[in-house]
Amino acid sequence: KIRRITAPQITARKGGEPIVSLTSYHAHTAAIVDKYADFILVGDSLGMVMHGMDSTLGVSLDLMITHGRAVMRGTQRAMVVVDMPFGTYEESPQIAFRNAARIMQETGCGAVKLEGGARMAETIRFLVDRGIPVMAHIGLTPQSTNTMGGFKTQGRDEESWPQHEADAQAVTNAGAFAIVLEGMVEPLAARITKQIAIPTIGIGASAECDGQILVLEDMLGLNEWTPKFVKVYGNLGPAIEQAVSEYTTEVKSRAFPGPDQTYR
Ligand code: KIV
Ligand code: NA
Known about the structure:
Its EC number is 2.1.2.11. By secondary structure, the chain is of the alpha/beta class. It contains eleven helices and eight strands. Helix 5 links the parallel strand 3 and strand 4.
């Protein structure tokens, strides 16, 4: 039996070979990612990517658990991290623990991730002290899109740097095992990465981070639009369209099913 990568093993990678991560929401793609990634994130971006929502705010705990279970079934090696969705952890450390425990129990995943810096430090400490590894997430935090006024790259204004640096330090002191830096200018990501003792995982936060993560569907070219920080490594959108189009033509011309696909 293959042992899964653990949260302390991720932490130990600080400053070493870059940590590789992608999101996955279901068993089949997760099985492919599992061959390469150190950890797989079941991100609440699944609300937008898989379910056509226009933000992550409508994602429920049950939906995260459903997808978390699918990803766990499809994988054996990578650590699986499941996002805590909006409304399931902000209110109190106790409520956060109850919901994080459900995620851990019902999916078998290795850690949870939640958004927020200093304001979430007490909650992170509460969960970690009770056996739940927590990945933090600061910078552009999509669950706060309504208070931030949209999706904006963070740190363009140097005066904002101390707050982001304090957030990174606070979640580190609270016991987070790693931290996602999202949508952040390179010099700020570099400063934070140097200042804290846990690995930074960047998304739109430059190569200065200790690791990188992307949304799988984005890097596979399955979304019509992708932001600047995404590199499209595979053009699956057009490939799927080509296949569906050929199938349509062959059904209409009765070329499919052919002799090979027919029981005689
Ligand atoms: O939900 C998600 O996909 C994420 C990553 C972008 C870090 O939180
Ligand atoms: Na997320």
